[in-house]
Specification:
It contains eleven helices and 13 strands. It is an alpha/beta fold. Helix 1 links the parallel strand 1 and strand 2. The radius of gyration is 19 Å and the shape is globular. Bound molecules: nicotinamide-adenine-dinucleotide and 2'deoxy-thymidine-5'-diphospho-alpha-D-glucose. The site of nicotinamide-adenine-dinucleotide (NAD) has 30 residues, from helix 1, helix 4 and strand 5. Nicotinamide-adenine-dinucleotide binds next to helix 1, helix 4 and strand 5.
């Protein structure tokens, strides 16, 4: 069992990173240093209310070696969330994805090698590519890498760097690959928050293609508990898949949102499909369940979604400043 006293959370002002910081504050005693560049996706407000005695925010880039030399020797572990994360953006401009996702991970690994620091890498199920809609198989830790988009290929590259730094230099690493997260504080560019905030603004939700694509949804708090289990109990050098058996067609998710928000379930627009759009993701989480005893707690998707809708309803000041420019970008892309 690895028992860190202090953890650096990169990307801790983003969606999953900030929910993970909150989870750590509520469920552990660790001291937390957040390293976040505050890109368009980072938000200082995501850490509002966390105790300053436990959490320190450092605004900076994971590619900044001098800053890493200052920060990394002072922590027992790094949990690495920082990344460019939106597939549509990676199709429009892949450059920041190569820099933050590949080079950024490289700089952190080098710092861990220099200071003997434990490293947990947060990755995605998208590194495995996609599955056919009529296929019954799911991704496992043994599925070959086959990423489709610029985003997922940079995440795959970063996973391979982590594996190499473990095998070649003996850096103490673990990797987790998780499916689609939902929860509070997710940027309005992403599917679920975009549709909820469209309805709240009186605009029509937008569905790509024919809506048959399947995503495997997990509540962000279940992702956080799984990451903690892998960090503290996982085997060094290993990969763990994280998922909560939450497969849903996009069309069905959208109809559930509309119904929960008191709208007609056909009250949306069909829009241009994403180029290279992955059809289906599905995680077999047997390894983390059997080896680490992890279990998701949010197993009722509709109930979880209702909670997220309430959060966006109650936090208009958080998302409204982002909404206009996101929709202007989508509109230019015909989406
Ligand atoms: P997000 O886009 O909401 O947040 C990313 C954060 O990283 C932002 O706060 C941003 O400012 C920061 N960041 C970006 N580049 C940086 C850099 N160079 N230096 C320092 N900080 C930087 O992302 P998210 O959805 O919370 O995803 C977090 C991680 O989880 C990513 O690694 C992503 O690949 C992975 N992941 C996401 C999902 C999902 O469903 N969202 C699923 C599986 C894995
Ligand atoms: O699977 C994990 C991945 O999940 C993470 O690695 C990514 O960082 C995260 O962004 C997410 O990727 P997706 O591309 O699956 O998420 P997104 O929210 O962009 O889209 C979810 C699905 O909804 C996808 O099939 C595209 C579709 N979609 C999306 C938007 C924004 C729509 O139909 N309409 C939309 O307006």
């Amino acid at each position: 069992m690895f028992e860190p006293n202090s953890v650096m959370v990169t990307g801790g002002a983003g969606f999953i990173g900030s929910n993970f910081v909150r989870w750590l504050v509520d469920n552990t005693d660790v001291r937390i240093v957040v390293l976040d560049k505050l890109t368009y996706a980072g938000n200082r407000g995501n850490l509002t209310g966390v105790p300053e005695s436990r959490v320190k925010l450092v605004v900076g880039d994971i590619c900044d070696d001098a800053l890493l030399d200052e920060l990394v020797p002072c922590v027992d572990a790094i949990v690495h969330f920082a990344a460019e994360t939106h597939n549509d953006n990676s199709i429009a401009d892949p450059a920041p994805f190569v820099s933050s996702n590949i080079e950024g991970t490289y700089h952190l690994l080098e710092a861990c090698r220099k200071y003997g620091t434990r490293f947990h890498h947060i990755s995605t199920d998208e590194v495995y590519g996609d599955l056919d809609l009529d296929d019954t198989t799911r991704f496992t830790e043994a599925t070959p890498y086959c990423p489709s988009s610029p985003y997922s290929s940079t995440k795959a590259a970063s996973d391979l760097l982590v594996r190499a730094w473990h095998r070649t230099y003996g850096v103490a690493t673990t990797i987790s690959n998780c499916s689609n997260n939902y929860g509070p504080r997710q940027h309005v560019e992403k599917f679920i928050p975009r549709q909820i905030t469209n309805v709240l603004c009186g605009a029509r939700p937008k569905l790509y293609g024919d809506g048959s694509n399947v995503r495997d949804w997990i509540h962000v708090d279940d992702h956080s508990s799984a990451v903690w289990d892998v960090l503290t109990k996982g085997r060094l050098g290993d990969t763990y898949l994280i998922g909560a058996d939450g497969e849903q067609r996009n069309l069905d998710v959208l109809r559930t949102i509309l119904t929960l928000m008191g709208k007609d379930s056909d009250d949306f627009d069909w829009v241009r499909d994403r180029p290279g759009h992955d059809r289906r993701y599905a995680i077999d989480a047997s390894k983390i369940r059997t080896e680490l005893g992890w279990r998701p707690r949010h197993v009722d998707f509709e109930e979880g979604l209702a909670g997220v809708i309430d959060w966006y309803r109650e936090n208009e000041s958080w998302w409204m400043p982002l909404k206009e420019s996101v929709e202007a970008t989508y509109s230019m892309r015909g989406q």
